[in-house]
Amino acid sequence: MREVIARVLENAPITEDVFSLTFCCEEEIPVRAGQFAMIGVSGFPLRRPIAICKAEGERITVCYRLKGEGTKRMSRELKPGENLSVLLPLGNGFYAAEEERRIALVGGGAGVFPLISALRQYADKKQVFAYMGFKNKENLCMEHEIYRASGGLIATDDGSFGFHGSAVAAFESEADKIKPEVVFSCGPLPMMRALAEYTKRKNIKTFVSLEERMGCGLGACLVCICEKTNGEHARVCKDGPVFDAREIFG
């Protein structure tokens, strides 16, 4: 992890409420799929934790949804050429063992973005199947990245594009055919819980990336504590954000 002063290259909307921010560091920073960055916002004492979507040499891309005043200010004020204070890379990230040759990615909403980094990392080395869910066609984004996968389905809740239903339902419809050896997931907790219940029955190793409010991003402030099924507490920023699904959902 290091603090860098990066230069904004692009900060533009890719849907009505999602922006893609690309910035350039002074040198290449190695990033593992699923890691995140803490991005400084002027006028706010705490940085914003945002998953890294793409790492291309010195260029880093993150995608963020407009939620509170902090992300709205990011969308307004981070113009190309501006400097940006960033801590990165943070967290443990996703990891597939050498013998795990078939990976399924199951993501919903903003949870799609950290999975794009996993797709980019493993697409040339393994068979990767992507099951990405969106509210509707208007919220669909990053499809050019999703199509890097060996297979899979794009799902929409209302059926306006692709599979009609959730990303989990789309995955379940093809799981017996693709026979994944490991599953990576990020998205709303109910979605990941449903996925974990299914993969537990099927005995498929599954890792989930949790999204929690964070303070420091370094594990010191204990804002992002989550409780594991064994009663122990974990820091999402430092011990995660990626956990074995059995640790979180049983």
Protein traits:
globular; 36% strand; 250 residues; 7-stranded mixed sheet; 6-stranded antiparallel beta barrel; 22% helix; Elongation Factor Tu (Ef-tu), domain 3; alpha/beta
Helix content: 10-25%
Number of strands: 15
If you average the pLDDT, what whole number results?
96
CATH superfamily of one domain: Translation factors
Largest sheet entry: 7 strands, mixed
Q: What strand order characterises the main sheet?
A: 10-9-8-7-11-12-15
Q: Quick one: overall form?
A: globular
Question: So what's the CATH class of one domain?
Answer: Mainly Beta
pLDDT below 50 for ≥5 consecutive residues: which ranges? none
Order of helices and strands: EEEEEHEEHEHEEHEHEEEEH
Q: CATH fold name of one domain, please?
A: Elongation Factor Tu (Ef-tu), domain 3
Radius of gyration: 17 Å
- N- and C-termini, Cα separation: 31 Å
- The share of residues in extended strands comes to 35-45%
CATH architecture of one domain: Beta Barrel
- Going by helix content, strand content and strand pairing, the class is alpha/beta
Tally of contiguous helical segments: 6
